[in-house]
Amino acid sequence: MKSLLFGSLCCIFFLTGCVSVKPKGIKPSIENQINHKTNPILFVNSLFKATLEIKKRRLSGLLLIKRMDTAAEGISSKGSVYRVVFTNEIGMTFFDLELTSDSGKMISCFASFNKKAFIKILKTDFQVLTNNFQFESQRTYRQDSTRNLIIYGIAGSMKIWQVYSPTADTLFKVAGKSTIADPVFISFTNYSNNRPAKITVENPVIGMKLSLRLLSKP
Fold this sequence. Notes:
This protein is mainly β. It contains two helices and 13 strands, in the order H-E-E-E-E-E-E-H-E-E-E-E-E-E-E. Helix content is 9%, strand content 45%. Strand 4 and strand 5 form a beta hairpin.
């Protein structure tokens, strides 16, 4: 499994500059703000065909996102608890991550994934993907070129930008970061029954791309 070792991840952080997650060409809007939960991508138990690429390394398999608290309980002020499990097609686990709004813990993984910096990146990625946070403050913008509605919010140490359709009924993109090392850009496409069938997660600092294609949903 030597080809799967990513020992250089931590070094990359010091070799890259600051990546902006703010959408371009936006202006403040005086319209009423919407709550960032009005069109959430909330996962209860979703299975994806997944491809993970880091530089020239590539892994493929199945990724399960499972919300451990029941949907009926709703999301508390502290967020929910998720398990994110990425395996290959024969069941070998690449990583099994337990995630809350303020922590991320590896249950099991390849040794090359069990790095504090990499776990921090995965934590940010899946927090943003699952909406597992509460905005402490938010602002509303419009993008000149598309008229898309933009929501900017702060949740703890994270700064998050959400890009909605002009009518605010479809979430197109989310970008966020908590440090210069973990910016993430997520796009949602191929919607069906208000759920995106295709999700792309990109971390430019380490050259990581996670492509997800929905196989099942609750």
